[in-house]
Amino acid sequence: MNSLIIYKSTEHKNTEKIALGINGILKGKLVKAEEVNTDQFNMYDLIGFGSGIFYGKFHKSILNLVEHFEKVENKKAFVFSTSGQGKENYNDSLKSILESKGFDVIGSFACKGFDTFGPFKIFGGIAKGRPNENDMKAAEDFAVKLLKKNS
Ligand SMILES: Cc1cc2nc3c(=O)[nH]c(=O)nc-3n(C[C@H](O)[C@H](O)[C@H](O)COP(=O)(O)O)c2cc1C
């Protein structure tokens, strides 16, 4: 199986840690959102999209990218995010956009990520030390499940 992970990680590289952890299992290609070449999508069976969450949404570079996609066929996808709250339902909107473009979204992963947004900064931030070892293990287990779904 050929996989591609497209991610944007700006604040504390929280999402990059998760992207690396997932890719350590999938052993595919990892690219930053600004470096992606959508012409090469047909080379991949599975494409992952991830970023931190900003005001409840994925990073605009990921959203802009997917909103401009042409429709695809027979293409699987997964979504992942890190955020101060770590809520998995932050992923739902990206999942819906991908589904509207024809992707079959087979997985969604979320965990907490160190968050120094606005007022949190004064108190040294929230979700300190996240993603931690347990989060990395959960991300790897998620990737193993993706592999199983594709075997
Ligand atoms: C401007 C801004 C807005 C944010 N909005 C949210 C939010 O709505 N919900 C949340 O849980 N975390 C929020 N966060 C925290 C980030 O999602 C979190 O730090 C994330 O792990 C950053 O990922 P990165 O280090 O990969 O860029 C926000 C952070 C910033 C700087």
UniProtKB/TrEMBL annotation:
Record field: transmembrane: none
Q: Which domain of life is it from?
A: Bacteria
**Taking every annotated instance into account, which residue ranges of this chain make up the domain Flavodoxin?**
4-91
Which InterPro entries does the record associate with it?
Flavodoxin_dom (IPR026816), Flavoprotein-like_sf (IPR029039), Protoporphyrinogen_IX_DH (IPR052200)
What name is this protein filed under? Flavodoxin family protein
